[in-house]
Amino acid sequence: MNTVYKKWFYILILPALIFFVCVIILPFLTGIVYSLTAWRGTYFAGNKGLFQSFVGFLNYSKAFQSKYFVDSLLYTFLVTVITVPSTTITAFFLALLVTKIQKGRALFRTIFYLPNMLGCLAMGFVFVFIYQVVFTEILFGPDGFIHIEALRYMTQDKYKAVFAIVLMSVWSKMGYMMLIFIGGLNAIPKEIFEAAEIDGANSWQRTTKITLPFLMPSFTIVLFLTLANSFKLLDRNVALTQGDFGTRMIALQIQKTIGDTMPPDYGLAQAQAVIFFILVASISIFQIVVTRRKEVEL
Q1: What is residue 222's predicted lDDT score, i.e. its pLDDT?
Q2: Which of 1, 68, 142, 235 is least enclosed by beta carbons within 10 angstroms?
Q3: Measured between alpha carbons, how far is 32 from 48 in angstroms, rounded to an integer?
């Protein structure tokens, strides 16, 4: 049987491999090459050829000299630092609560997962209505239920928008991450908890000494997904603020670079995309290495 598998293995994966190379690898390598040139999207600067328009690392230097790029990078880090732990902790406690429920467990799982089914742009416009009308005028305005100025005009202030984006991100992704944690919780043998309870371990001790260590593989996955999604967040940024009021995140900044430069400097935008990729890949790999060291095998 192993001989049959080995014989057909490379033949069967060949279509997927060709697709991966053509759709992922080649465009990625082409992007790196274009980031080293004065590329204008449909032509090279001065109507020169590829090699004649080679500028080396000038685009990378210009990227770090751009205030828009640096500010968007810092703003993305700020949003990510708040979003990742908020989503992870919320999803973890939801998973604990749902697994404790005896009746209606499937219903609660479905309800918490439903926000993940909504399109981010559509969801963003719904949240714009909530922030601009419900929060600003109905609930927290001068004539509202309770006047809280800090919760008004959430999308029109750089720092208020951080929490607006975080709240929307947590609400939309917590159900999906909750299911990952539930899968990890169900994989932990019940006998371990029963033995710990017999030995006198309380609920807190069982959670910190058994649940958390055995759930580290799930934490690895959840942290990786939330980290990557937070860094490459684009549609929610567009829907909520359009990048105005200093709320431009890195993915939107790359898109806006083409409009900020005249003629459109696609080479500079591509250089920013390469920098973005290196940062996200480095942080994600570091996170995976750190969390996997803490994993406990069953």
Answers
A1: 93
A2: 1
A3: 18
Q: Which two tokens stand for residue 69?
A: 């790029």
Q: In the prediction, which pLDDT does 293 show? A: 80
Asked if 252 and 72 count as a contact pair (C-beta separation under 8 A), the reply is: yes
Is 122 exposed, middle or buried, given 0-12, 13-18 or 19+ CB atoms closer than 10 A?
exposed
CA distance 174 to 153: 25
Q: Dihedral, CA atoms, 104, 106, 108, 114, nearest 10 degrees?
A: -150
* H or E stretch at 60: helix 58-65
Q: Quick count: other Cβ atoms within 10 Å of Cβ 239?
A: 21
In order, the DSSP letters of 230-259 are: HHT--HHHHHHTTTTTTT--HHHHHHHHHH
d(CA 106, CA 175): 12
pLDDT (0 to 100) of residue 36: 92
Domains of the chain: 64-260+270-293 (1.10.3720.10)
Q: Which two tokens stand for residue 140?
A: 């927290």
CB neighbour burial string for 61-98, b if at least 16 within 10 angstroms, e if fewer: ebbeebebbebbbebbbbbbebbbebbbebbbebbbeb
Task: Note the pTM of the prediction, 2 decimals.
Answer: 0.86
CA–CA dist 73, 89 (Å, integer):
25
Asked whether 146 and 139 are in contact (CB, 8 A), the reply is: yes
Q: In the chain, which residues have pLDDT < 50?
A: none
Nearest-5° Cα angle at 286, 73 to 171:
60
Burial environment of residue 269 by CB neighbours within 10 A (0 to 12, 13 to 18, 19 or more) = buried
Cα separation, 151 vs 131, in Å, equals: 8
